[in-house]
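Exercise 7.
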Amino acid sequence: MIVEIQKFMNEQTEALGGQAMKFRRDPVRFMRKALAGSAEGLKSLKSPVRMVAHSGVKLTLVSGNAVQSLIELESEVVTAALTGAAKRLERAMEAEGVADLVLSQVEMLGATRERVVDEATRAVDIFKHAGRDVREVATHAYEVVVQAAEGKPAKAKRTRKPAARKAVVRRRKKVAKRIPPASRWAM
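Solution. The predicted structure, written as tokens, is:
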């Protein structure tokens, strides 16, 4: 281990000595060359920095769409729960006895179960869609930055317009078709 460290130190010392010799012979040329290399390095950072910034904007959009969808879902969940609770109270009020009360409440359990499952499924779909979008943004950003580091030109990626809102509307229509309207929000 010590021999390897000494070997590495000797190589570094020789390389530094060579650089010092070049600097001593023609300091102006050496500095110009070093500055040109530094300028090229800084120029090459423009594209990755822009890509990271653009990816940050895309991630903000994805998270904003996901939060919007979750808030809309939460509003629907609360509204449905309140409607269901009111319906349960109305049925309890109309019950003629304990047996009638229990029977009417049990009849509403199926619709409540379907509603809860539907809401949970929609929440999972929202997270799944957001996760997929985050993965796409991260993968694209990684590929562009790695290609820029390797000196390869970045492939132009087809960008798709945010369809998160359209997907939510399509899912709602699909779910609405599966559940009959009368029992959809009953508890």
